[in-house]
Design a protein that fits this description.
Length: 326
Amino acid sequence: MSELTESMKHIEQLRKDNQSLYRKLEKAKIKTADLLDVVFAAAYQAVSETGPLVPVPPTKQSSVKPEMALLHLTDWQYGKKTSSYSMKVCEKRVEQAINKTEELTNIQRADHSVNEVHVMLGGDMVEGESVFPGQVWEIEAPLFDQWNGVANLIARSVSRLCEVFPKVVVWEESGNHGRVGMKGDFSPVTNFDRMAYKLAKAKVNAKNLTWHEQDGWHKMITIGNYQAMLAHGDEIRGVNAIRSTAEKWASGKIVEPFKDVYLGHFHTPMTLTMANSNRVFVTGTTESDSEYAAKNLAATNTPTQRLHFIDPRKGRVTSEHTLWLD
């Protein structure tokens, strides 16, 4: 009986303790609620006294600095015939290069305005007919048809670029495949590359086009503060002499000062750094199955052209693209 009494007393005490805790909890809730009300009221009063908060403007982007595209089209060898190359294939690959130029420019325009393209026509646009013995067996069409066809292809390409860019600037340089006869037979001015450029220029009817005709064995390219030298590359005796020859040109004793050199001729895309930290950009060819590349460079040829973007204010290349055309 005593154990039952003790248990009942214990239960009663637990009930009292529980009720006491419940009352304390209610008081605590009331105090917490009161405290929150006071805090919110004080905050509201502070805001009311200081006035509405000034809205924070969105972060302003830096002013858009314009860039300019630099497209190097060279060594089309139009008229060459191999197991995988023909005039029709050349036309398709050049069209692909122009399409890729537009696509990459639109990507670049997400951050920079790109309203101007400089097109360097680097030479060997025609395959020729009598540049080396036996060449006549490696061509698809006689030289006259090559000249007329490549002029039309250049004109179509430049016209398309005139639709993509508000301003198009063309620079010319001829190659050794455009010459008539063997080297030294005729004046260097007698060159079917130059003739094709002349005809192409006459075919393009665009007000936003500026065309710089060839006036020597090289061309100095000016894009704002960016100075570059355009040459075909046949002036250099072998691929191993590219860097040393370009450094001699850059000495200031042979040609005007420049930053970078753009070459074709060697059929394989390369980038070489000169002693002054400026560079030599060698652009490939649209041709495939190149016997020249196999014999002289021990390399298989993947058809390419080159597209750069230039900061005209700082005078430097900001973006480099090899346009793969396979």
